[in-house]
Design brief:
The structure is a homodimer.
Chain A lengths: L12 H19 L4 E2 L1 H8 L3 H11 L10 E2 H12 L5 E6 L3 H7 L3 H4 L2 E8 L8 E2 L2 E5 L3 H8 L3 E4 L3 H14 L3 E4 L12 E4 L2 H14 L2
Parallel strand pairs in A: 3-4, 3-7, 4-6, 7-8, 8-9
Antiparallel strand pairs in A: 1-2, 5-6
Helix pairs in contact in A: 1-4, 2-3
The structure holds a DNA duplex.
Chain lengths: 215, 215
DNA sequence: TAGATTGTTAATCGATTAACAATC
DNA sequence: TAGATTGTTAATCGATTAACAATC
């Protein structure tokens, strides 16, 4: 872990999780015609601690900010893109073209972040051959060959919780290394495969819970 | 903050965020006919540190676990429900019945967590009067009266990013105290209103980023 | 009993906040 | 220059991990 220690190039996970927030805000600002921005303005708008923002930015920016002026927005955005890997387009497959799956297929936001779902897969014969959001829906039998041919590493699971584990096992055997799971269930995976669970219900529950604390 | 210090009833935020995970796992186990479970089994299955799980459970459970046996699953689930507030049904409104909005309206997972979207709202005349997932779609003009009548505190925003700020301002003026934002943009809110941003694209980007680190 | 598993107290780790000198 | 804003080092805070005695 002591590879490149030129200038404390170690960026905290927590910082990484805030970068999209900054990026989104900077995009707004540049659309409003702004050219420079100070960390304190960002902090205030985003309701974050000013020192925290300053430290985050210090970690990612290639050109230091200028006292009195702040950071050049355009440069800063490029730096953030670099760190988030928005430049290397990431291709993924989606399994399960139900309602949620269709939403994800046609979600345009992904493009902006360098993400591309190449196809949806489903067992339902009626869906196969259709296009949703410009993406083809293919038979499950095509899954393996597509993953191999395009060397895809990331899969999105939008099937029912009953099928999630079986599908995941298949995906892993085909070479998938990262799974974004929307099925509201726990999935067991071998070492080396990373997973991100997106439990929408739990997410909303957490919000309402916090609300009830604030009375 | 020194109200009820009977038995360290202060539960960490991080613990709270893991509770849905435990809950989901316990549900599986009880369906398999299990009656007791040990923290170490939970930890192993969920790939968490055993001590962490033990501590989390110690914090929420009303009946202590039994050495050698573990915790009674059913009791534990009830305790978790208590802590997550799954029991007090939370009602919310959804603004923006586009593709994402429709998915959320018909997402059945919410029910299990004591969450209920009472109606969807949209400006599109063609949608008004329809039912999706059993929930009516109403005109925006009905929004205020519904929030007031049912005393609703939580709103879900699934409109385009251009409209998100304006809608939020309206919602706050109607009395909404918590916003779950799916529009990929930053929203400015007054003190006292809490927000949870659900940036799907950023979420996937983070996953693929982590993948690329693992090479 | 012996052994597994619990709950708790202390140690470590990581992230946030505070303080402050440097700079335009 | 004076003042705002930067980057960095140190202090605090919170969460995780380790250690261990207590219990069935």
């Amino acid at each position: 872990m002591k590879t490149n220690r030129n200038k404390s190039i170690i960026i905290m996970k927590s910082t990484l999780s805030r970068l999209p927030l900054y990026y989104c805000f900077l995009k707004e600002k540049i659309n409003e015609g702004e050219q420079y921005i100070s960390s304190s303005v960002i902090a205030e708008s985003l309701k974050l601690n000013a020192i925290l923002v300053r430290k985050d930015l210090a970690g990612v920016c290639s050109v230091p900010g200028k006292p009195r002026l702040g950071f050049e927005i355009e440069k800063l955005m490029i730096d953030i893109e670099e760190h988030l890997g928005y430049n290397n387009v990431n291709e993924s497959v989606l399994i399960g073209v139900g309602r949620l799956g269709r939403t994800l297929l046609s979600y345009e936001g992904f493009m902006n972040y360098g993400l591309n779902i190449v196809a949806g897969f489903d067992v339902d014969e009626d869906l196969i051959g259709l296009k949703i959001g410009g993406k083809p829906i293919l038979s499950m039998s095509k899954l393996e060959s597509m993953i191999e041919r395009l060397n895809i590493r990331t899969a999105i699971i939008a099937v029912s919780k009953e099928h999630a584990q079986a599908i995941s096992d298949k995906l892993v055997s085909f070479g998938i290394k990262a799974i974004w799971n929307f099925a509201p269930t726990h999935i067991d995976l071998p070492e080396g495969v990373i997973i991100k669970n997106e439990n929408l219900a739990a997410s909303l529950a957490a919000l309402t819970k916090e609300l009830s604390k604030n009375l």
